[in-house]
Design goal:
It is a single chain. The chain has about 150 residues and is an alpha+beta fold. It has one domain: 3-Layer(aba) Sandwich (Glutaredoxin). Helices cover about 45% and strands about 20% of the residues. The chain contains six helices and five strands, in the order H-E-H-E-H-E-H-H-E-E-H. The longest helix is centred in the last third of the chain and has 17 residues. The relative contact order is 0.18.
Length: about 150
């Protein structure tokens, strides 16, 4: 019993840093960009409290996102913990991404890289991607968004 509690506390300590209940997250630089004309790339994280892959992907994003603080990138976190009353749906509708909620069909543990102006989905990123792969995917999507 003591071993189980110890292992569980270690496990929770490992996943907790990647777990956030915020619905929309933007850096101060992103807020300034929005006031000056908006982000060029939306990163939409579909997550839920019960989703282990979400915690892994969230932790990776915590490490990767500081590299994009001065870039026109906006991270939007859609919380799908309660699929019957999803707070994430309201967040996506507020951001003009209601169709993404419908097409996603409740899937969690995925990060969508979306052109903020056209709504085109450039890529999807999953928890199995390394920090470097995620950084590269965001850089490529940002380059596409800047050309459009």
């Amino acid at each position: 019993m003591r071993i189980t509690v110890f292992v569980l506390s270690i496990f929770l300590g490992l996943i907790a840093p990647g777990c956030r209940n915020t619905q929309t997250t933007t850096t101060d630089a992103a807020v300034l960009r929005d006031q000056a004309g908006g982000a060029q790339l939306d990163l939409v994280l579909m997550r839920a409290d019960w989703c282990a892959q979400c915690h892994v992907l969230g932790a990776k994003l915590d490490r990767v996102m500081p590299a994009f603080e001065s870039e026109p990138v906006k991270l939007i976190v859609a919380d799908l913990t309660d699929i019957h009353h999803p707070a994430g749906k309201a967040v996506l509708e507020q951001e003009g991404l209601g169709a993404l909620f419908e097409s996603n069909r409740g899937r969690t543990g995925v990060l969508y890289l979306i052109d903020a102006e056209t709504g085109e989905v450039y890529d999807r990123v999953y928890s199995r991607a390394s920090d470097e792969e995620i950084r590269g995917d965001i850089e490529r999507a940002l380059a596409k968004a800047e050309q459009s």
